UniProtKB/TrEMBL annotation:
Name recorded for this polypeptide: sn-glycerol-3-phosphate transport system permease protein UgpA
CDD domains: TM_PBP2
A Pfam cross-reference name: BPD_transp_1
Role noted for this protein: Part of the ABC transporter complex UgpBAEC involved in sn-glycerol-3-phosphate (G3P) import. Probably responsible for the translocation of the substrate across the membrane.
GO biological process, one term: transmembrane transport
Amino acid sequence: TTLIFSFLVAGIGLAVSLFFAALVDYVLRGSRLYRTLMILPYAVAPAVAAVLWIFLFNPGLGLITHFLNGLGYNWNHAQNSGQAMFLVVLASVWQQISYNFLFFLAALQSIPRSLVEAAAIDGAGPVRRFFH
């Protein structure tokens, strides 16, 4: 169980962080807003985050639990180990994404723009420019 948790959190956290860092680095309209939203979980204290997750997923009072029950899905992480694992992985990934995002974004922004522009002129597409 610990290995599954570790691989899920590391794999999903790194993949999502890299995706959003590349998205923000790709000079999109509103990238400041994206950057701010991605850094926000890093600023939330773990105790506050725990209360937030409890409030959202409490079997009796949770907002998301109530919504899922309204759709006909019986959500009760206290009785279902699969749902509990999903919730713990989701909360851990949410907390980890912003930390990884900062490092990936810093690394992507340290690449000189002249190299990226030269690759674009040579005909490299966005995916090829990213991986090379």
